[in-house]
Specification:
The structure holds two protein chains of two kinds. In chain A, 50% of the residues lie in helices and 10% in strands. By secondary structure, chain A is an alpha+beta fold. In chain A, helix 4 (124-143) runs antiparallel to helix 6 (167-190), helix 4 (124-143) runs parallel beside helix 14 (351-399) and helix 9 (232-246) crosses helix 12 (307-321). The model of chain A has no long low-confidence stretch (mean pLDDT 91). By secondary structure, chain B is of the alpha+beta class. Chain B has two domains: 4-186, Dna Ligase, domain 1 (2-Layer Sandwich), CATH 3.30.1490.20; 190-328, D-amino Acid Aminotransferase, Chain A, domain 1 (2-Layer Sandwich). Chain B has a six-stranded antiparallel sheet. A five-stranded antiparallel sheet of chain B has the order 1-2-5-3-4. The longest helix of chain B has 18 residues, at 92-109. Classes of the chains: A alpha+beta, B alpha+beta. Chains A and B meet through helix 3, helix 7, helix 8, helix 13 and helix 14 of A and strand 9 and helix 12 of B.
Chain lengths: 603, 363
């Protein structure tokens, strides 16, 4: 390949971020110790999940995620061609390197894989049902963990029950339990996810052989689920909007703020009360929904920022009252999917092909609920609980002066927290002044400055030596990294005629004014009829998809959540352009061709 | 005996009365395909005209002692016969019916003297088939009842082209047994025209439609005189999966003196796509319909009618079975007899195969 990426060892810290490595575990950084290995590998930046510089504690979930993915490939299931994924944090950004399996091991791995993966495929539905139970139990376990200020006096029951341990020990144990639960959560996340992708790839490969001209999109449409838990939060918003209209209480929403609306609802009698009660029912679990990917402690979560779902509900009410249809046409979507399947089948060559097609499609559909839904259960619901618990712990520290605010706890590395807890316990037990209030605030302040500086750095899309051909299947499917996209990065930016290339993620062609935003806080800037341009989008942005004509993103592949959501909402989308937000300006007229992966700047 | 048979009244039992071309047009019309309207002047018309002029006797006299190797003699004698036929009187009732039908066709087309194509439609085995087609049996852009009748007679006369006549002599067929049906069909004034295959001709992929298109009349594409625009459309999704716009330097146009002639195309126009996306999709749907009707891959000729409103302006001119890939049969993915139902082996080999390395489908 022509062109090169910088080597990891060549990258310097941006001004103001010197010493940033202390924010992360020692083993997560590039260093002279492993430079020879690191400079010889290919690393791509994951801007899909971690678009900004990581906060120290937040890095925990990233690390657990990547290592869990890896262990299933390399040690549990023995995916034949692919081991796991190595990762590093560089200037606060996440870089990933797929580790191929040694050629000579592949036959042995194939044999083991057949047995191990076979177990999952043959028992998939049962195992998935059980998986849902495991996740719910884990959420319950985490919710029961208590993080509250240590009492002046231990309750009498502690003494009379003969427990022999108290609050000081409990809060430390609970924190370690929380970490353990997070690790378990991520192992559950990947338990058989890669097998889901493998089944999907098998169907995908068959279709491409039978029909060389078929688009990736057409295949995705044949497999995608219709009733998907990932869209349930949005469905609940719509249901509540419809309920407000049907029971005649929409006036309560005119006040424009949550407090005022709730007051008005309560004053509206039994319908208003019923609505509030219905909202609360929807909220658990469906509003444990992040406005981002779920990986950042700073992402807003609906259940803690109810003005967000309230705003969306108000928009839906306005739509309904203007005579609009807010329903996702699930019947039409299912009918369309069935039509597509039936039609392609008529073009297959033989009974054997039809049988194979049906078998592979069937398996792909069995696995897809897990593939599409796990994201809600892990990155949204479970993570919401984790963030909540950490903020509760942060509040305990803040009360004792260790931190200025509960959210500052995320500036500690996960393994620093037990030390701070011990300091707290020690000072409570003595009692004597803790060192924490002197020690932690300056560290947090310095680290905040560092993270701010890191966020000014523009990460190279990749480092090191690009492979001749990208073969590792999950790199392609999950991150959309292909030989084409690597070449695109090396090419760097829009071509002379003002076009950008990316993945044809959702079909259709639309033209309109661009609205470039960089995060969920800017969602309200998006106007009707605009084309959304963003580094990435999140499933929780779905409610604005009724306003926009199309989306363009910097990152993400065919199976990214942005692509899935756009297909479900029938919006053209081009993902993985690499440079959309740095090239397109708000207000510029652009044309998005989601069938061919092309974006053209018309002005 | 029926003299005039409109396409929409065609049914299979009529084939002997109207011949292959008319039968095909009748069948397509009956299938609801958008074929330009028209009618057949049935063989009975030729028979009556021939009988009333006592043509058989005259033909026998002219051809008596014909030596088919004497080309000059053949040319001279056949020329005489054709002159006879093209000038013989048509029984009044029949002529009135032809005029009446042309009038009605014009009314249907919403125009005073609708331009038509007048073509021979052979009816029997002892008549030469399409491979004998020549200049005597197709007349394009004919207008006015007089010219139509004139063209009908010339088509009748094409029964006695030099080749046809000699063919019958050699095969020992009786000249008195041959009959001719003539098709009169509204001509399309095309903005653009071309061909389409209901599979990808480069690889036999049955899920795609391939379209070749150029400005003006379709002759330029069919004859390969112009490098056409090429589009590939997915049949199921109706996405345009490939576009190649070529420099279409020439086109057949309708001149202002009612002829069809080849001219050079303005350079800027030559590089513009000659079809809109809506038209491309409409042609694809038409091709699909034809394929479904005939039950096998088709090779169709189509035109975009400049006189009809968008959404109703794609016309089918011809549909015949595709021969190259159909003969091979579609290529199965699973080699026959190898599907053991073992999905795990398949998954393993998919993971090992670099098929998906290409990522998103390029144009």
């Amino acid at each position: 390949m022509a062109g090169k990426f910088p080597l990891p060892s060549e990258i310097v810290a941006p001004a103001g971020a010197e010493g940033w490595q202390e924010l992360y575990n020692y083993s997560s950084s590039f260093s002279a110790d492993r430079a020879e290995y690191e400079d010889s590998m290919f690393w791509f930046q994951d801007g899909v999940h971690w678009p900004k510089a990581l906060l120290p504690w937040d890095a925990s979930l990233m690390e657990m995620a990547i290592v869990s993915l890896s262990q299933y490939n390399s040690r549990h299931l023995l995916v034949p061609p692919a081991n796991g994924i190595d990762f590093r944090i560089l200037n606060g950004y996440v870089y990933l390197s797929p580790v191929p399996a040694p050629e000579e091991d592949i036959p042995m791995r194939a044999e083991q894989f057949m047995q191990r993966a076979g177990h999952y495929f043959l028992n998939w539905n049962e195992l998935y049902d059980n998986w849902l139970v495991k996740i719910r139990d884990l959420v319950k376990e985490m919710e029961l963990l208590e993080f509250s200020s240590l009492p002046d006096v231990e309750p009498l029951e502690v003494v009379t029950s003969g427990a022999g341990v108290g609050s000081g020990g409990a809060i430390q144990a609970n924190y370690l339990k929380l970490l353990s639960c997070a690790s378990t959560l991520w192992q559950y996340h990947f338990e058989f996810l890669n097998l889901g992708y493998a089944a999907y790839l098998d169907f995908f490969g068959f279709c491409k052989q039978a029909f060389p001209g078929i688009s990736d999109l057409a295949i995705a449409k044949m497999v995608a689920g219709v009733e998907v838990d990932l869209f349930r939060p949005d469905e609940e918003l719509k249901r509540l909007a419809r309920m407000a209209v049907d029971t005649g209480i929409t006036d309560a929403f005119k006040t424009g703020d949550v407090e005022g609306t709730c007051q008005a609802l309560r004053a509206a009698g039994e319908y208003g009360e019923a609505w509030i009660s219905s909202f609360q029912q929807s909220a658990e679990p469906w509003f444990n929904f992040s406005t981002g990917s779920g990986f950042s402690s700073q992402d807003k979560i609906w259940i803690e920022n109810v003005e967000i779902p309230f705003d969306f509900i108000k928009n839906y009410i306005d739509s309904l009252q203007a005579g609009g249809d807010i329903n996702r046409p699930t019947e039409a979507i299912a009918a369309e999917r069935d039509r597509i399947v039936a039609e392609y089948m008529t073009f297959l060559a033989s009974d054997e092909d039809r049988e194979a097609f049906n078998g592979k499609l069937g398996l792909a559909r069995v696995v897809f609920p897990y593939v599409e839904n796990h994201n809600f259960y892990v990155e949204h619901w479970s993570h919401s609980v984790i963030w909540r618990k950490m903020k509760e712990l942060g509040a305990v520290f803040a009360k004792e002066g260790f931190l200025d605010a509960p959210e500052d706890i995320f500036y500690l590395r996960r393994h620093e927290v037990p030390d701070a807890l011990f300091d707290l316990y020690h000072s409570w037990a003595a009692p004597a002044p803790a060192r924490g209030p002197h020690y932690w605030p300056p560290i947090v302040a310095r680290r905040k400055g560092i993270v701010e500086a890191l966020n000014t750095w523009k990460p190279s899309p990749a480092l090191g030596v690009p492979p001749e051909v990208v073969t590792e299947p999950f790199t392609i499917m999950l991150w959309g990294i292909t030989s084409d996209s690597i070449a695109n990065w090396l090419g760097g930016g829009a071509s002379e005629d003002g076009t950008l290339n990316g993945m044809a993620a959702s079909p259709g062609v639309e033209e309109g004014p661009a609205r470039v935003i960089f995060g969920p806080d800017q969602i309200n800037e998006v106007l009707d009829g605009e084309i959304l341009v963003a580094p990435l989008t999140a499933p929780s942005w779905a409610p604005i998809f009724g306003k926009i004509k199309a989306t363009v993103t910097d990152t993400g592949g065919m199976m990214s959540h942005a692509a899935i959501v756009c297909r479900e909402y029938g919006l053209p989308a081009v993902t993985g352009t690499g440079f959309a937000t740095s090239t397109i300006k708000t207000g510029q007229r652009i044309r998005v061709d989601g069938s061919n992966g092309k974006v053209t700047i018309l002005d | 005996m029926t003299t005039i048979s409109w396409f929409e009244s065609y049914w299979a039992g009529m084939k002997s009365e109207v011949g292959g071309k008319a039968a095909s047009l009748g069948e397509m019309t009956g299938a609801g395909l958008p074929v330009p309207p028209g009618f057949a002047v049935c063989t009975s018309a030729y028979r009556r005209a021939r009988d009333e002029s006592d043509l058989d006797a005259q033909i026998a006299r002219i051809l008596h002692g014909l030596n088919i190797n004497d080309t000059d003699s053949v040319t001279e004698r056949c020329g005489q016969i054709r002159k006879l036929i093209s000038t013989m009187p048509i029984p009044e009732g029949i002529e009135l019916q032809i005029r009446g039908a042309y009038l009605e066709l014009s009314a249907r087309a919403g125009t005073k003297e609708v331009p038509v194509a007048v073509r021979s439609s052979a009816t029997s085995e002892d008549s030469p088939d399409a491979s004998f087609a020549g200049e005597h049996d197709t007349y394009l852009w004919v207008r006015g009842a007089e010219d139509v009748i004139d063209a009908v007679r010339r088509c009748w006369a094409s029964l006695f082209t030099d080749r046809a006549t000699c063919y019958r002599v050699e095969m020992g067929y009786d000249h008195r047994s041959v009959e001719m049906c003539v098709v009169v069909q509204k001509m399309v004034h095309p903005k653009a025209a071309g061909v389409a295959f209901t599979l990808d001709p480069t690889n036999g992929d049955r899920s795609q439609v391939a379209i070749d298109a150029a400005w003006g009349f379709g002759e330029s594409v069919v004859a390969g005189e112009v490098t056409p625009d090429n589009f590939r459309v997915d049949k199921v999704m109706l996405d345009i999966t490939k576009r190649i716009i070529s420099a279409k330097t020439q086109e057949y146009v309708l001149t202002d003196h009612d002829t069809v002639e080849k001219v050079d195309t303005d350079p800027e126009r030559a590089l513009q796509p000659c079809l809109t996306d809506a038209e491309i999709k409409a042609i694809t749907k038409l091709a699909k319909t034809a394929e479904r009707h005939y039950g096998c891959p088709q090779d169709i000729e189509w035109a975009v009618d400049v006189d009809l409103p968008e959404g109703e302006n794609i016309i089918l001119l011809q549909s015949r079975p595709e021969t190259v890939w159909s003969r091979k049969g579609p290529t199965a993915v699973i080699a026959p007899g190898t599907n053991t139902g073992d999905f795990m082996s398949s998954i393993v080999s998919t993971l090992m195969s670099p098929l998906y390395t290409k990522g998103s489908d390029g144009p």
